[in-house]
């Protein structure tokens, strides 16, 4: 699971009436014991208890499978409030290594077993060996500070699209800080979240066969409600309950991935959130425009990963992802670990971050982009998840996968994946709103420009994979 974070709703949403109706419900005693467990909610007031009962006991509520909570006691809650304030008022550093980097490196080097084995003192920055996800997967304790209080740790598991499933250590204060970076992203679109007691601040929407689902409250915002739910029909008593429950919740924000948000757009909702947040997967321009038209609200495409949290938010005026974290140093390196000139493509490498349980020192993300500096700060352009792939045209020339991304950008596709086999033929798998027979000819036409003629291309439907590699090839030489 990933932890997450105006006038609420929209004119006519009757948010005040929702607050009056949220009186809670009578729940079985065993459910209430789990729901209000002090380990999950060390601090829980009357508004929070009322909200939890209401979310869980609503007649249209889904079948919630799990229990969760913020786990913030009084001291940690005060600490979390301070961290929220600090993030809200911090500016991004100027280009180049930030001033905090030297002290961060010295502290991390003293605390991380994997680095201490490389020597008593950290080397020069340019000589520091980058690390990757495989290092974390092979021996995670080597990359966790020795001074951590283990009783306070929480862990969540990533799905491992790179072939390296990973347990990521975290802390309740770290989980709470996601809200601060989502606030920074929302502020760039003129939105300041202010859900309060008696209101639902955010719904985290999934669309998977199996999904971690629960209700909680946010103690940083007056114990407003939070619900993590699964939009798959089998998780509801009746499919119509999905729209009825979401309309009753009237969340200020809805977060999900392109798959779940596309499913959300098909529901007959009357409520419009103030914004939608898309994470985890690439969001097509066509789907973003459809979601914005459907909900009359901005759709934020957030570049995020479990190891580092929210990294950037896409801004059309900047043609890329504006960076969000003041204490995360972003480099672009080549395969040999050498810095790329500004504006040149390479691998995104991270150092620092807000998760003190997993300090990153030149962490290779496997994602690629160009880093440029604008008047609005650093921006990642031409972001591509995982390693770039070249595709071979019929005339023998190679085409970078970024050309495919540009060609397919206008289409309303939830997901797609392009593969080139050993015979050089292409298979494009698509998951979109339009029937395959109608969209396939237009997809073929769009790919003629980057891939040329003759074009051996088959367009098929994309199954219900939760995650997938977007670009793959069997041809030798496909790696740039």
From TrEMBL:
Sequence segments annotated as region (Disordered): 1-28
InterPro entries registered for this protein in UniProt: AMP-dep_synth/lig_dom (IPR000873), ANL_N_sf (IPR042099), CapK_Type1_Caps_Biosynth (IPR053158)
Compositionally biased intervals (Basic residues): 15-24
Domain AMP-dependent synthetase/ligase: 157-353
Name of the protein this chain belongs to: AMP-binding protein
Naturally occurring in which organism (per UniProt): Ideonella lacteola
């Amino acid at each position: 699971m990933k932890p997450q974070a105006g006038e609420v709703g929209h004119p006519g949403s009757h948010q005040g009436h929702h607050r009056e109706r949220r009186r809670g419900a009578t729940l079985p005693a065993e459910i209430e014991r789990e729901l209000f467990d002090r380990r999950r909610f060390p601090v829980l007031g009357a508004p929070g208890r009322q909200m939890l009962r209401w979310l869980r006991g609503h007649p249209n509520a889904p079948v919630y499978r799990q229990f969760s909570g913020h786990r913030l006691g009084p001291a940690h809650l005060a600490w979390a409030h301070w961290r929220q304030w600090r993030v809200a008022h911090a500016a991004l550093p100027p280009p180049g290594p930030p001033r905090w980097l030297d002290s961060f490196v010295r502290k991390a080097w003293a605390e991380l077993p994997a680095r201490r084995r490389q020597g008593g003192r950290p080397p020069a920055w340019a000589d520091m060996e980058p690390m990757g996800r495989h290092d974390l997967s092979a021996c995670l304790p080597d990359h966790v500070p020795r001074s951590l209080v283990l009783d306070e740790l929480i862990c969540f598991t990533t799905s491992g699209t790179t072939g390296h499933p990973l347990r990521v250590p975290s802390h309740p204060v770290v989980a709470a800080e996601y809200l601060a970076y989502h606030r920074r992203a929302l502020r760039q679109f003129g939105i300041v979240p202010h859900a309060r007691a008696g209101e639902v601040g955010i719904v985290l929407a999934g669309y998977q066969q199996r999904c971690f689902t629960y209700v909680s409250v946010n103690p940083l915002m007056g114990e407003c409600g939070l619900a993590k739910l699964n939009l798959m029909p089998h998780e509801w008593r009746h499919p119509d309950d999905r729209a009825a429950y979401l309309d009753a919740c009237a969340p200020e924000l809805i977060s999900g991935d392109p798959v779940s948000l596309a499913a959300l757009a098909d529901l007959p909702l009357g409520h419009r959130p103030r914004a939608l947040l898309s994470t985890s997967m690439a969001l097509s321009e066509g789907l973003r425009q459809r979601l914005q038209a459907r909900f009359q609200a901005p759709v934020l495409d957030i570049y995020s990963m479990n190891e580092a949290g929210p990294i950037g938010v896409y801004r059309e005026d900047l043609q890329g992802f504006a960076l969000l974290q003041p204490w995360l140093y972003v480099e672009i390196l080549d395969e040999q670990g050498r810095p790329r000139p500004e504006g040149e493509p390479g691998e995104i490498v991270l150092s620092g971050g807000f998760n003190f349980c997993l300090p990153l020192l030149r962490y290779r993300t496997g994602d690629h982009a160009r880093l440029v500096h604008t008047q609005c700060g650093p921006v990642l352009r031409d972001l591509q998840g995982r390693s770039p792939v070249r595709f071979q045209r019929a005339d023998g020339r190679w085409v970078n996968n970024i050309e495919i991304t540009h060609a397919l950008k206008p289409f309303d596709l939830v997901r797609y994946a392009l593969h080139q086999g050993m015979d050089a033929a292409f298979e494009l798998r698509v998951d979109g709103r339009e029937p395959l027979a109608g969209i396939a000819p237009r997809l073929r036409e769009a790919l003629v420009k980057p891939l040329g003629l003759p074009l051996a291309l088959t367009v098929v439907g994309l199954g219900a994979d939760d995650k997938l590699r977007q670009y793959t090839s069997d041809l030798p030489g496909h790696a740039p």
